[in-house]
Amino acid sequence: MARINENLFVLGASGMVGKQMVYRNCKGGIILQKRPRRTQKQTDAQIAQVNRFKEAVIYAKAALADEATRKAYSEKARNSAYALSAHNVAVGDYLNAPIINKVNLERYSGLAGEEIVISAIDDFEVKEVAVEIRQSDNTLVEKGKALANGNGLDWIYTTQWVNTMVAGSIITACAVDRPGNITKEEVII
Protein backbone atom coordinates (compact mmCIF):
# COMPACT_ATOMS: atom_id res chain seq x y z
CA MET A 1 0.00 0.00 0.00
CA ALA A 2 1.39 3.37 -0.99
CA ARG A 3 0.41 6.71 0.55
CA ILE A 4 0.48 9.74 -1.76
CA ASN A 5 0.54 13.32 -0.48
CA GLU A 6 0.25 16.50 -2.60
CA ASN A 7 0.80 15.00 -6.05
CA LEU A 8 -0.87 16.99 -8.85
CA PHE A 9 -1.28 13.95 -11.10
CA VAL A 10 -3.49 12.04 -8.65
CA LEU A 11 -5.04 14.95 -6.74
CA GLY A 12 -8.65 13.98 -6.01
CA ALA A 13 -8.30 10.56 -7.67
CA SER A 14 -10.38 7.67 -6.39
CA GLY A 15 -11.56 4.32 -7.69
CA MET A 16 -10.05 1.47 -9.67
CA VAL A 17 -7.25 1.79 -12.22
CA GLY A 18 -6.90 -0.99 -14.79
CA LYS A 19 -8.65 -3.60 -12.58
CA GLN A 20 -5.42 -3.86 -10.60
CA MET A 21 -5.03 -0.88 -8.26
CA VAL A 22 -7.46 1.20 -6.22
CA TYR A 23 -7.09 4.84 -5.17
CA ARG A 24 -8.79 5.79 -1.90
CA ASN A 25 -9.07 9.32 -0.53
CA CYS A 26 -8.35 9.55 3.16
CA LYS A 27 -7.95 12.49 5.45
CA GLY A 28 -4.34 13.45 4.94
CA GLY A 29 -3.74 11.97 1.48
CA ILE A 30 -4.51 9.35 -1.13
CA ILE A 31 -3.83 5.65 -0.64
CA LEU A 32 -2.96 3.41 -3.58
CA GLN A 33 -3.49 -0.27 -2.90
CA LYS A 34 -4.01 -3.61 -4.62
CA ARG A 35 -7.58 -4.28 -5.73
CA PRO A 36 -9.48 -6.29 -3.10
CA ARG A 37 -10.83 -9.62 -4.31
CA ARG A 38 -13.44 -11.92 -2.89
CA THR A 39 -12.56 -15.53 -3.51
CA GLN A 40 -15.24 -17.30 -1.48
CA LYS A 41 -18.91 -16.96 -0.70
CA GLN A 42 -19.50 -14.91 2.44
CA THR A 43 -20.25 -16.84 5.62
CA ASP A 44 -23.31 -16.11 7.78
CA ALA A 45 -21.04 -14.34 10.29
CA GLN A 46 -19.60 -12.12 7.54
CA ILE A 47 -23.07 -11.26 6.26
CA ALA A 48 -24.17 -10.42 9.82
CA GLN A 49 -21.13 -8.13 10.23
CA VAL A 50 -21.83 -6.39 6.91
CA ASN A 51 -25.42 -5.78 8.03
CA ARG A 52 -24.24 -4.48 11.41
CA PHE A 53 -21.89 -2.09 9.63
CA LYS A 54 -24.80 -0.88 7.44
CA GLU A 55 -26.78 -0.20 10.64
CA ALA A 56 -23.79 1.73 12.02
CA VAL A 57 -23.65 3.93 8.91
CA ILE A 58 -27.39 4.63 9.16
CA TYR A 59 -26.95 5.52 12.84
CA ALA A 60 -24.00 7.82 12.02
CA LYS A 61 -25.97 9.71 9.37
CA ALA A 62 -28.89 10.23 11.75
CA ALA A 63 -26.65 11.16 14.69
CA LEU A 64 -24.71 13.72 12.66
CA ALA A 65 -27.95 15.36 11.55
CA ASP A 66 -28.35 16.55 15.17
CA GLU A 67 -26.10 19.59 15.69
CA ALA A 68 -25.16 18.83 19.32
CA THR A 69 -24.29 15.22 18.52
CA ARG A 70 -22.32 16.28 15.43
CA LYS A 71 -20.34 18.73 17.57
CA ALA A 72 -19.51 16.05 20.17
CA TYR A 73 -18.40 13.51 17.55
CA SER A 74 -16.41 16.19 15.66
CA GLU A 75 -14.57 17.17 18.86
CA LYS A 76 -13.64 13.53 19.52
CA ALA A 77 -12.43 13.17 15.90
CA ARG A 78 -10.31 16.32 16.15
CA ASN A 79 -8.66 15.08 19.35
CA SER A 80 -7.95 11.62 17.92
CA ALA A 81 -4.40 10.53 17.20
CA TYR A 82 -5.67 9.16 13.86
CA ALA A 83 -7.12 11.00 10.89
CA LEU A 84 -10.78 10.40 11.76
CA SER A 85 -13.95 12.19 10.74
CA ALA A 86 -17.02 12.68 12.91
CA HIS A 87 -18.69 10.00 10.77
CA ASN A 88 -15.87 7.52 11.59
CA VAL A 89 -16.26 8.22 15.32
CA ALA A 90 -20.06 7.77 15.16
CA VAL A 91 -19.75 4.47 13.27
CA GLY A 92 -17.17 3.24 15.77
CA ASP A 93 -19.38 4.29 18.67
CA TYR A 94 -22.26 2.24 17.24
CA LEU A 95 -20.07 -0.82 16.71
CA ASN A 96 -18.47 -0.80 20.19
CA ALA A 97 -20.53 -1.46 23.31
CA PRO A 98 -19.42 -0.10 26.68
CA ILE A 99 -17.21 -2.22 28.94
CA ILE A 100 -17.84 -2.74 32.64
CA ASN A 101 -14.43 -3.24 34.22
CA LYS A 102 -15.53 -3.78 37.80
CA VAL A 103 -18.52 -3.81 40.13
CA ASN A 104 -17.06 -2.82 43.49
CA LEU A 105 -19.11 -4.09 46.47
CA GLU A 106 -16.60 -3.25 49.21
CA ARG A 107 -18.90 -0.53 50.62
CA TYR A 108 -22.08 -2.66 50.43
CA SER A 109 -23.29 -4.80 53.32
CA GLY A 110 -27.04 -4.67 52.65
CA LEU A 111 -27.92 -1.45 54.46
CA ALA A 112 -29.59 1.62 53.00
CA GLY A 113 -27.29 4.53 52.08
CA GLU A 114 -24.33 2.36 51.08
CA GLU A 115 -22.48 2.71 47.78
CA ILE A 116 -21.92 0.33 44.90
CA VAL A 117 -19.21 1.60 42.54
CA ILE A 118 -19.27 0.55 38.88
CA SER A 119 -16.25 1.21 36.63
CA ALA A 120 -17.48 1.52 33.05
CA ILE A 121 -15.80 2.83 29.89
CA ASP A 122 -16.73 3.31 26.24
CA ASP A 123 -14.86 4.43 23.13
CA PHE A 124 -16.99 7.60 23.14
CA GLU A 125 -19.05 7.96 26.30
CA VAL A 126 -21.15 5.99 28.77
CA LYS A 127 -24.55 7.72 28.93
CA GLU A 128 -25.95 5.92 31.97
CA VAL A 129 -25.43 3.04 34.35
CA ALA A 130 -28.33 1.28 36.05
CA VAL A 131 -28.13 -1.09 39.01
CA GLU A 132 -30.52 -3.83 40.11
CA ILE A 133 -30.30 -5.78 43.37
CA ARG A 134 -32.11 -9.12 43.69
CA GLN A 135 -32.06 -11.61 46.52
CA SER A 136 -31.05 -15.24 45.89
CA ASP A 137 -34.74 -16.20 45.39
CA ASN A 138 -34.94 -13.54 42.60
CA THR A 139 -36.97 -11.11 44.74
CA LEU A 140 -36.27 -7.54 43.63
CA VAL A 141 -34.80 -5.47 46.45
CA GLU A 142 -34.31 -2.27 44.44
CA LYS A 143 -33.20 -0.79 41.17
CA GLY A 144 -32.15 2.62 39.97
CA LYS A 145 -29.61 4.72 38.14
CA ALA A 146 -26.06 5.33 39.27
CA LEU A 147 -24.55 8.81 39.20
CA ALA A 148 -21.33 9.66 37.36
CA ASN A 149 -18.43 10.21 39.75
CA GLY A 150 -16.87 12.87 37.53
CA ASN A 151 -13.59 11.03 36.95
CA GLY A 152 -14.82 9.64 33.59
CA LEU A 153 -14.72 6.06 34.85
CA ASP A 154 -16.74 5.42 38.01
CA TRP A 155 -20.48 5.49 38.55
CA ILE A 156 -21.91 5.38 42.08
CA TYR A 157 -25.21 3.82 43.07
CA THR A 158 -26.44 4.62 46.59
CA THR A 159 -28.77 1.97 48.01
CA GLN A 160 -32.23 3.02 49.16
CA TRP A 161 -33.50 -0.12 50.90
CA VAL A 162 -32.24 -2.68 53.39
CA ASN A 163 -31.41 -6.08 51.90
CA THR A 164 -32.19 -8.64 54.61
CA MET A 165 -30.71 -11.57 52.65
CA VAL A 166 -27.35 -10.29 51.38
CA ALA A 167 -25.70 -13.70 50.97
CA GLY A 168 -26.44 -14.99 47.48
CA SER A 169 -27.84 -11.66 46.28
CA ILE A 170 -27.34 -10.78 42.62
CA ILE A 171 -26.12 -7.30 41.69
CA THR A 172 -26.67 -6.45 38.03
CA ALA A 173 -25.04 -3.38 36.48
CA CYS A 174 -26.06 -2.19 32.99
CA ALA A 175 -23.99 0.39 31.10
CA VAL A 176 -25.53 2.16 28.09
CA ASP A 177 -23.72 4.29 25.50
CA ARG A 178 -25.03 7.02 23.14
CA PRO A 179 -26.19 4.66 20.34
CA GLY A 180 -27.98 2.45 22.89
CA ASN A 181 -25.52 -0.44 23.17
CA ILE A 182 -26.03 -2.22 26.50
CA THR A 183 -23.50 -4.19 28.53
CA LYS A 184 -24.60 -6.16 31.60
CA GLU A 185 -22.45 -7.47 34.40
CA GLU A 186 -23.80 -9.69 37.18
CA VAL A 187 -22.07 -10.26 40.50
CA ILE A 188 -23.26 -12.75 43.10
CA ILE A 189 -22.41 -11.86 46.68
Break the fold down into its secondary structure elements and pairings.
Layout: E1 2-4, E2 15-17, E3 21-26, E4 29-34, H1 44-65, H2 67-78, H3 86-95, E5 99-104, E6 115-121, E7 126-134, E8 140-145, E9 147-148, E10 154-158, E11 170-177, E12 182-188
Antiparallel strand pairs: 1-4, 2-3, 3-4, 5-6, 6-10, 7-8, 7-11, 9-10, 11-12
Helix pairs in contact: 1-3, 2-3
> Largest beta sheet, briefly?
4 strands, antiparallel
Q: What is the molecular shape? A: elongated
The strand order across the widest sheet is: 1-4-3-2
Number of strands: 12
- Low-pLDDT residue spans: none
Q: SSE string, helix = H, strand = E?
A: EEEEHHHEEEEEEEE
Task: State the oligomer.
Answer: single chain
Rg, alpha carbons: 23 Å
- The average pLDDT value, as a whole number, equals 89
Distance between the termini: 53 Å
In what range is the share of β-strand residues? 35-45%
DSSP helix count?
3
**Classification by helices and strands:** alpha+beta
Helix proportion: 10-25%
Describe this structure in words.
The protein has about 190 residues and is α+β, with helices and mostly antiparallel strands. Helix content is about 25%, strand content about 35%. It is built from 3 helices and 12 strands, in the order E-E-E-E-H-H-H-E-E-E-E-E-E-E-E. The chain has helices at about 45-65, 65-80, 85-95; strands spanning about 1-5, 15, 20-25, 30-35, 100-105, 115-120, 125-135, 140-145, 145-150, 155-160, 170-175, 180-189. The strands form 3 sheets. It has a 4-stranded antiparallel beta sheet with strand order 1-4-3-2, with no helix packed on it. Helix 1 crosses helix 3 (about 85-95). The protein is elongated.
